[in-house]
């Protein structure tokens, strides 16, 4: 019985070391997973920036691409038509408008868009 108790005491120390080892391995795995998620988000954002520049040339784009001007931010671009001007924002999958884009959309829908001219004299 004495030997069993000594064995259990010795094993419990080994078990604690093993648990500590597993915790370190888990922390390393979680850090790697976090880095991979960050990398995937970065790739997704890069893909989106590239795709939005080409979308006006795709078959699904409903306007003449010659009238599109790319801005990038806060909206992807502006489409100039004969009878109207359209602010364009391209989204993929489940992407949603940013807070700033939602605000701009409300301003446009409320008719809060105007034209101003500035003339500068060359010196």
Strand content: 5-15%
Question: How far apart lie the N and C ends?
Answer: 103 Å
Bulk shape: elongated
What are the segments in which pLDDT stays under 50 over at least 5 consecutive residues? none
- Percent helix, as a range, is 40-55%
Oligomer: single chain
Largest sheet: 3 strands, antiparallel
* Radius of gyration using CA atoms only: 29 Å
Provide mean pLDDT, rounded: 84
- Number of strand segments: 3
Number of helices: 2
Series of secondary-structure elements, N-terminal to C-terminal: HEEEH
Structural class: mainly alpha
> What is the strand arrangement across the widest sheet?
1-2-3
Describe the protein.
The chain is 52% helix and 9% strand. With 123 residues, it is mainly α. A three-stranded antiparallel sheet has the order 1-2-3, with no helix packed on it.
Keywords:
elongated; mainly alpha; single chain; three-stranded antiparallel sheet; 123 residues
Offer a quick outline of the entry.
The protein is mainly alpha-helical and 123 residues long. 52% of the residues lie in helices and 9% in strands.
How are the SSEs ordered, and which strands pair?
Elements: H1 2-54, E1 68-70, E2 77-80, E3 85-88, H2 99-109
Antiparallel strand pairs: 1-2, 2-3
């Amino acid at each position: 019985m004495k030997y069993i108790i000594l064995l259990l005491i010795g094993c419990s120390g080994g078990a604690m070391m093993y648990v500590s080892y597993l915790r370190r391995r888990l922390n390393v795995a979680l850090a790697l997973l976090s880095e991979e998620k960050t990398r995937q988000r970065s790739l997704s954002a890069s893909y989106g920036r590239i795709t939005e520049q080409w979308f006006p040339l795709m078959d699904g784009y409903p306007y003449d691409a010659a009238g599109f001007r790319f801005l990038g931010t806060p909206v992807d671009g502006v489409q100039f038509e004969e009878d109207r001007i359209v602010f364009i924002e391209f989204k993929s999958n489940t992407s949603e408008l940013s807070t700033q884009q939602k605000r701009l959309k409300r301003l446009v829908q409320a008719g809060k868009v105007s034209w101003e001219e500035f003339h500068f004299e060359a010196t």
